[in-house]
């Protein structure tokens, strides 16, 4: 009984913590739709202003984590769908075949304007809404009013992102921690596979390394987004220097993950061919996996790992040992750059006597 109560308590504690961390998003989603609706009703006099809050919500949800330029494209995509569809509906009326035609033309228009995938989605959603929701009798010029409402709602949503921004330093630190953890896990699995001559474990590490592409892509998008937030939001200007340093380090860690992919592939090939495995390579990988998790890792510790791997390969030289040592050295170089090492000093630091 006590265990069940404790589990329930932990559940509510974890969920409460998650809610507390997302307070900015809660405020944005609470304020933006209501403000967009009020502005459309009170400032522009639109009696059916449902597109304004909808556009604000879609901007804040679909565009979460995107760069401001992409957010603008999404807003434009929604407005294009509304404008094209409403102008057509005024001529042909509403119905199933009309909806099909409007959707087709909305997608074609978005593609013609070279809008990205999210913007195309917005155009389609907007077209569906305007075909299926009939304007009230006497509703003046629905094409213009709905187009204006879409732009207004999107603009309010974008303003909320800028005025109530996420903490870019915290966001990027969290992404860095996740990337370091994934890198460390792959290196540890690969090192253990080498130590135990375990082909299955090496294959598992390779599959995991190949699966990092989505994380790498997400990290790249996040780096662009937080840099832009720090540049656009006056509440984050003082964090710009810290954000730039962290995004630069993220790029280097991204390269380390990519190099780990190549490393895992070479290790798997080596073990499948039943080649002798020098113990020093497995030791280097195990040590490197520990250092990958250490944000305060010293330059000397990283350099020592690279030297040990290269010397081991020289003493047991084959194509695969040389390739594995070379990839370890490349990963160390990426981690050194992430730690702030001057690129011009890498060759001198990683040279082997």
TrEMBL record:
Its main location: membrane. It is found in: Membrane. InterPro entries: Memb_transporter_dom. Keywords: Membrane, Transmembrane, Transmembrane helix. The chain crosses the membrane at residues 43-63, 70-90, 120-140, 146-164. The keyword Metal-binding does not apply. Coiled coil: none annotated. It is a multi-pass membrane protein. Residues 36-159 form the Integral membrane bound transporter domain. It holds the Pfam family FUSC_2. This is Uncharacterized membrane protein YgaE (UPF0421/DUF939 family). It comes from Nocardioides massiliensis. The lineage of its organism: Bacteria, Bacillati, Actinomycetota, Actinomycetes, Propionibacteriales.
